[in-house]
């Protein structure tokens, strides 16, 4: 069976998108591994399925490059908003998207006489700083700030990293460093991802303040490795910076693939992410 797919990226975080309303897929875990390979497959950070929903307008399922299923991806959700509108699956400029971490609200910023989605703002809901299933720090590694924020120090190959756990539907550990441009992200990220503090593994953000409310961030994603950007990671970084008083509640997160604007809104304690989404190409591929 031959199916159509679309490759898209949000700030360089690239995924393969399949409309399962037209092309049902039974084995997304296997296909994500096969198709994500850059030299022998399509090449991507994973596979995203656009599905029908009985709770929202549409549903998203996302699979990492290693076949594991993620609960949420901010960059992918923005791309889905652009896909749905520009491919004519909806004419709404506000879309309710079901994910494994809840229903997200996508607000499309439309230009060119209603033809093009320039960017998308996603209500990422409230960040969580505790999760007993995903975050089990030892007492020896933990200190609590005057504001009651847990700071955890982990060790990777002799180097210590102090950071903040933030759950944006999926787990993140944000650590601020002074050598963002030279640190070996692959080496330390791989170790920290599988630290015993994180029973389900963890996404790792290495961040550095460069200017007021501008944060340079590099990402090691659970199940995918180094990626050009991570939407939930940007939200986690902005949240961690705000609650540790490194930044205000609005900041720009500068990642390898582009910049995302994050607002940690005081009125409702929700995190709002705004950023671009782009088509790369459409294609056809045979199901094995």
Q: Can you put this structure into words, describing what you see?
A:
It contains four helices and 19 strands. The N and C termini lie close together (8 Å). The chain is an alpha+beta fold and 288 residues long.
Short description, anyone?
The chain has 288 residues and is of the alpha+beta class.
What topology emerges from the helices and strands here?
Blueprint: E1 2-10, E2 13-19, H1 28-36, E3 46-51, E4 58-64, E5 69-70, H2 74-86, E6 94-99, E7 102-111, E8 116-123, E9 142-144, E10 150-156, E11 159-167, E12 171-176, H3 185-193, E13 203-211, E14 214-221, E15 225-227, H4 231-243, E16 250-255, E17 258-264, E18 271-275, E19 278-286
Parallel strand pairs: 2-3, 4-6, 12-13, 14-16
Antiparallel strand pairs: 1-2, 1-19, 3-4, 4-5, 6-7, 7-8, 8-18, 9-10, 10-11, 11-12, 13-14, 14-15, 16-17, 17-18
SSE sequence, one letter per element: EEHEEEHEEEEEEEHEEEHEEEE
Strand count: 19
Described by its quaternary structure, the protein is: single chain
Morphology? globular
Alpha plus pi helix count: 4
The amount of helix comes to: 10-25%
Structural class: alpha+beta
* CA-CA gap between termini: 8 Å
Q: State Rg.
A: 18 Å
Strand content: 35-45%
The whole-number mean of residue pLDDT values reads 97
Task: Detail the poorly predicted runs.
Answer: none
**Can you summarize the main beta sheet?**
19 strands, mixed
Entry keywords:
4 helices, single chain, alpha+beta, 288 residues
